[in-house]
Design a protein that fits this description.
- The protein is an alpha/beta fold.
- It is 49% helix and 8% strand.
- The chain is built from 16 helices and eight strands.
């Protein structure tokens, strides 16, 4: 019995030597041992067991941004591929600046920084206690991978990544028939007090009236509804390509956006903000409004906010403290609103007067004329 007890003691001692330090936690039911290691080591094995790779980055076109409900940016896409290689999910967290990234990495709040912090190789930084993770990254990364990722992203953002048939923007001009879906546009546009031809113009911009259209990001049907948005709106994924149900769900979403911009009292102005949010995201448009307000502009007038939507593609704007959601492809959203209004005017027989604004709110034509004048005077 004495020998048996000694063997048990040795086994317990050996097991405890192979385990990481654990803390005793006091609870209302007594003391228990915390099962999570409390030392600073959280290397590759622990990451894979935990099932998540935590990365830090900065917002920007080359790093990480939201695009119509999907995440893009070459650094993010490359990090996602690395996480896939490890067999874990990726959690990308955006910091305000490089100092915050470095501090959080040092504090052990993340596994690595997915941002070119050095001129050597990929330029990512990995926590000091993660030697195995660093070796895994070095073995996985090959020169040229970042360039390939950028090509993939460029393709995704092009029209080539959208699968759709292109139909005529107007079925019968003499008869005033825009599409095969005019009855649906008329029925549902009335519920939000929109001109049905405006809804038709938006639909053409989204899908060119192809009910089977699908984008690389997963947007589906006539009004290009994302599956997650369809779930939120109560549209069954099995019916997401049904023309009437797709239009009806889109109008429900537009009604939500109308309510979210209820502080914009003038309906014709609110429509522009709603269209911009439908394309670029409600929170990005609110960021542009905050910038407009900060710069002494009227945040309830689209032509005064539009320059700051464009500006959100430039660091001086998307890094501004009032901006909460970082970089956006503002030119695409501005173009989206403009094209829909032009087509709507065309459907109504109204002449369109074009006006383009740059980040400083100066019309582009005027900017070119100023530049030309300046060059001549030199």
């Amino acid at each position: 019995m004495k020998l048996h007890a000694t063997l048990i003691f040795v086994l317990i001692l050996l097991c405890s030597c192979g385990q990481k330090k654990q803390d005793t936690v006091v609870t209302p039911w007594g003391e228990i041992t915390d099962t999570i290691p409390t030392d600073d080591s959280f290397d590759l094995d622990e990451i894979q067991r935990n099932g998540e790779l935590i990365a830090l980055t900065l917002t920007g076109p080359e790093t990480y941004y939201d695009y119509r409900g999907r995440h893009l940016g070459a650094q993010y896409l490359l990090a996602q591929k690395f996480a896939d290689k490890l067999g874990v999910s990726l959690r990308m967290e955006v910091c305000r600046d490089s100092a915050e990234m470095l501090q959080r990495l040092e504090d052990g709040e993340a596994d690595l920084i997915c941002y070119p912090m050095t001129q050597k190789g990929l330029g990512w930084l990995i926590g000091d206690d993660k030697e195995d993770l660093e070796e895994e990254l070095k073995a996985w990364y090959k020169p040229g991978m970042l360039a390939e990722i950028k090509k993939e992203e460029e393709f995704l953002l092009s029209n080539r990544a959208v699968h759709r048939r292109v139909f005529a923007p107007m079925l019968n001009r003499a008869g005033g028939v825009i599409s095969h879906y005019d009855g649906f546009f008329q029925r549902y546009a009335a519920t939000i007090r929109w001109d049905w031809r405006l809804l038709a113009a938006q639909c053409y911009q989204e899908s060119t009236f192809d009910p089977k259209a699908r984008s690389w990001a997963g947007a589906c049907g006539l009004m290009q509804i994302m599956p997650g948005t369809a779930d939120h709106l109560g549209l069954s994924r099995a019916n997401i390509y049904d023309p009437e149900q797709n239009i009806a769900a889109a109008v429900r979403y537009i009604a939500e956006l109308e309510r979210s911009f209820s502080d914009i009292r003038e309906h014709s102005e609110r429509i522009k903000f709603v269209l911009a949010a439908y394309n670029g995201g409600h929170f990005h448009i609110r960021d542009a409004m905050a910038l407009a307000l900060k710069n002494g502009r009227n945040a309830n007038r689209w032509h005064e906010v539009e320059p700051f939507v464009l500006g959100l593609s430039q660091p001086q704007y998307y890094n501004d403290p009032v901006v909460k959601n970082g970089y956006m492809r503002g030119s695409e959203t501005v173009d989206y609103v403009r094209k829909i209004h032009e087509r709507w005017n065309n459907y109504r027989g109204v002449k369109t007067v074009r006006s383009f604004s740059g980040p400083q709110g100066v019309p582009q034509k005027a900017k070119r004329e100023r530049k030309k004048k300046y060059q001549i005077s030199e």
